[in-house]
Recover the amino acids of this structure.
């Protein structure tokens, strides 16, 4: 194979990368000439990085393409399975809820009948005993199902939420704050624009 | 319908709870006498219950809490009664942590906090309510007392000193529903027991 990378190659390049860190640590910039040397070193380091990235992608790109193709092949099957599972689960839960609601209504009726003396407690117990069951665990030959009641949160009114539970939308804040600065408008309260030096290396 | 036959000859809350939550484990324990795994929490709960009952313990922390705890006069109060279902009779056995003329206290130790809702829905109190109504003909007032525990080191459980009390009262419909539940469970156990043997 043309671009075959051996363990030996990786070892050599690893040594080269460690040397780059050592050189960077030893670098002192105290005048414009040393700044030029630093630019040279930065470009060499980045070129080394570009080469490594290219060689890595020579390997990972075909793998990713293969992975993408395999995922695409199975996706329709998985989607259909997910839909079927969702429909079955919904129907099972709907039935469970229906029985629970019907039982609750039946229990209320029985309670009223006992209180009014229309039926004896023994009759009520018999009626209650014969209400349809909602089993929390259902077994079949292929597998079993366990119904659980989980707790979820619903934010009813965001305005009532204490400050500690709110996360700033930094993306939106950045867009609006920079636009305000450009237009010379008052800044968003609690936000200021700062400038930070960075650099771009072309090679 | 077959006659109701229970492995121990009676139904207790712990039996009913185990059957409802894990029939397989119930069968192992009550049909075949297999020893069940005892957790550190369960061991501590037993030790605490014994201290409440006897007023003695080798754990100073437990002893301190027990001495300041005002339980009712009769400890480990035994109640035996029969729930009737047509011609069938289901013997019931309960041991109330403490009892005194219309008042019952049930003590719980554990890390998980008890709440009023949890106490109201706790089947054990409903079960005792059925037994007491059958035995005495009247409704009782229940007090569920939670003694919080923590695990300071692996396996070393201790009381934190936090104690919370939840008062629970059961209505007539609660009583009727629990009675129906007891009958249903007794019939299920009986059927499984007779199928097995």
């Amino acid at each position: 194979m043309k671009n075959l990378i051996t363990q030996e190659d990786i070892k050599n390049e690893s040594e080269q990368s460690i040397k780059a860190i050592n050189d960077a640590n030893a670098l002192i910039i105290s005048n414009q000439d040393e700044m030029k040397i630093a630019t040279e070193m930065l470009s060499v380091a980045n070129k080394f990085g570009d080469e490594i990235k290219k060689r890595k992608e020579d390997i990972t790109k075909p793998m990713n393409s293969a992975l993408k193709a395999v995922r695409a092949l199975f996706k329709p099957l998985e989607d259909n399975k997910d839909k079927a599972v969702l429909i079955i689960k919904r129907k099972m839960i709907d039935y469970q809820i229906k029985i629970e609601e019907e039982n609750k209504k039946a229990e209320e009726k029985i309670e009223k009948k006992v209180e009014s003396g229309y039926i004896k407690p023994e009759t009520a117990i018999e009626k209650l005993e014969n209400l349809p069951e909602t089993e929390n665990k259902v077994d079949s030959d292929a597998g079993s199902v366990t119904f659980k009641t989980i707790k979820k949160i619903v934010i009813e009114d965001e305005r009532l939420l204490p400050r500690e539970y709110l996360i700033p939308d930094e993306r939106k804040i950045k867009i609006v704050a920079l636009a305000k600065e450009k237009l010379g408008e008052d800044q968003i309260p609690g936000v200021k624009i700062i400038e930070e030096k960075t650099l771009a290396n072309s090679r | 319908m077959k006659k109701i036959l229970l492995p121990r000859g009676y139904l207790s809350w712990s039996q009913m709870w185990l059957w409802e939550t894990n029939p397989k484990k119930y069968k192992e324990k009550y049909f075949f006498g297999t020893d069940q795994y005892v957790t550190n929490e369960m061991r501590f709960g037993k030790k605490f219950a014994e201290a409440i009952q006897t007023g003695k313990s080798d754990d100073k922390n437990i002893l301190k809490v027990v001495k300041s705890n005002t339980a009712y006069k009769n400890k480990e109060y035994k109640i035996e009664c029969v729930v009737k279902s047509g011609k069938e009779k289901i013997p019931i056995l309960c041991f109330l942590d403490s009892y005194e003329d219309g008042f019952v206290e049930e003590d719980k130790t554990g890390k998980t906090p008890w709440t009023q809702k949890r106490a109201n829905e706790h089947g054990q109190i409903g079960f005792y309510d059925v037994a007491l109504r059958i035995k005495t003909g009247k409704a009782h007032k229940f007090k569920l007392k939670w003694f919080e525990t923590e695990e300071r080191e692996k396996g070393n459980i201790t009381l934190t000193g936090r104690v919370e009390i939840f008062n629970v009262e059961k209505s007539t419909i609660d009583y009727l529903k629990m009675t129906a539940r007891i009958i249903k469970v007794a019939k299920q156990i009986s059927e499984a027991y007779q199928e097995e043997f």
About this structure: The longest strand of chain A covers residues 137-139.
